[in-house]
């Protein structure tokens, strides 16, 4: 944009005002969107929506300056922090094939959990490099729960794959990770949306993405309801999962109220089960749509 103006055509005051306005417009046009400190919630297969959220944030010009998460949020965050989001997306989409899930399940059938978890970490190691968190190009945080004393354990340094293994250790499914005398399990048990753990930088925005928001339809992954609000069906597994989801959602609400993110992306994916990877494309698209809506609301 050419700022020069033929002042012979305008009164001097008007000309100066136009030049000033043009300079402002040029500056705005060249400005990039703000930096974002992004926090990704727990969620199992529902967490595939986090990839859609990240892609939409970047599509709209936001720069992710730091990232934090727990459980699936920690995994997706690691994909992004190592520059392997596309490969991670391909990996998760491929899990819609039942045989792929079974291939990753190294069954233990012990009292500590059904799955050892070694095989899935080996597979993730083909995508995520075996590096320390402190060596990543952006600050990364993963959250786990110390089963030994009920406290939160925060990974801000140390081996990245170990942090993921701890954070995704859903009780009764994965065996806990033993580390320095601790038994570490899924971070979603204690801090499912760790808004208080992400590394902040000057001038950034705090953004959160939660993947188990309530839907207006009244349908969830556990139950379907008729027009009178009566449950049509349920089973032991779905009842347990739905009860856990409600507890996690309440913890997320408390976190949002306390830490007040600038942008809150609520993705209504409760109708999908935490192992329903076969719905990956739909779940991903929900993340894109919800993020677009949240950014539109923020930018009004």
Strand content: 15-25%
Cα(first) to Cα(last) distance is 26 Å
Radius of gyration: 22 Å
Category by helix and strand content: alpha/beta
Strand tally, please?
A: 10
Structure description:
α2 (49-59) packs across α9. The chain is 39% helix and 17% strand. It has 300 residues and is an alpha/beta fold. A hairpin with a 4-residue loop joins β5 (140-146) and β6. The protein has helices spanning 12-30, 49-59, 72-81, 85-94, 98-104, 118-124, 160-167, 236-259, 280-299, and strands at residues 35-40, 63-70, 107-110, 113-115, 140-146, 151-155, 177-179, 182-186, 205-210, 263-266. The strands form two sheets. Strands 1, 2, 5, 6, 7, 8, 9 and 10 form an eight-stranded mixed β-sheet that branches. It has a two-stranded antiparallel ribbon with strand order 3-4. It contains nine helices and ten strands. Residues 1-8, 22-30 and 217-231 have low confidence and may be disordered.
How is the topology of this model organized?
Layout lengths: L11 H19 L4 E6 L8 H11 L3 E8 L1 H10 L3 H10 L3 H7 L2 E4 L2 E3 L2 H7 L15 E7 L4 E5 L4 H8 L9 E3 L2 E5 L18 E6 L25 H24 L3 E4 L13 H20 L1
Parallel strand pairs: 1-2, 1-9, 2-5, 9-10
Antiparallel strand pairs: 3-4, 5-6, 5-8, 7-8
Helix pairs in contact: 2-9, 3-4, 3-7
Give a concise summary.
With 300 residues, the protein is of the alpha/beta class.
Highlighted features:
9 helices; 300 residues; two-stranded antiparallel ribbon; 39% helix; alpha/beta; disordered N terminus; eight-stranded mixed beta sheet
């Amino acid at each position: 944009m050419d700022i020069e103006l033929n002042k012979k055509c305008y009164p001097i005051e008007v000309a100066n005002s136009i030049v000033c306005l043009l300079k402002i417009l040029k500056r705005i046009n060249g400005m990039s969107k703000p930096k974002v400190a992004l926090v990704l919630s727990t969620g199992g297969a529902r967490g595939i929506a986090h990839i859609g959220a990240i892609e939409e944030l970047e599509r709209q010009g936001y720069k992710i300056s730091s990232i934090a998460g727990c459980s699936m949020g920690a995994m997706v965050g690691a994909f992004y922090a190592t520059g392997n989001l596309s490969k991670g997306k391909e990996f998760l989409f491929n899990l819609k094939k039942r045989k792929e899930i079974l291939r990753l399940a190294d069954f233990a059938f012990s009292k500590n959990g059904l799955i050892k978890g070694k095989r899935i970490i080996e597979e993730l190691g083909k995508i995520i490099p075996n590096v320390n968190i402190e060596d990543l190009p952006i600050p990364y945080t993963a959250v786990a729960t110390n089963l030994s004393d009920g406290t939160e354990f925060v990974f801000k340094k140390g081996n990245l794959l170990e942090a993921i293994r701890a954070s995704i250790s859903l009780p009764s499914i994965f065996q806990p990770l033993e580390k320095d005398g601790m038994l570490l399990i899924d971070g979603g048990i204690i801090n499912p949306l760790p808004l208080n753990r992400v590394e902040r930088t000057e001038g950034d925005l705090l953004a959160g993405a939660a993947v188990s928001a309530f839907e207006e339809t009244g349908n969830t992954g556990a139950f379907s309801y008729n027009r009178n609000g009566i449950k049509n069906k349920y089973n032991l597994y779905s009842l347990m999962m739905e009860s856990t989801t409600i507890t996690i959602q309440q913890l997320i609400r408390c976190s949002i109220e306390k830490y007040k993110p600038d942008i809150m992306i609520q993705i209504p994916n409760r109708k999908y089960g935490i192992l329903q990877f076969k719905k990956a494309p739909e779940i991903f698209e929900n993340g894109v749509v919800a993020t677009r809506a949240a950014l539109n609301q923020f930018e009004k």
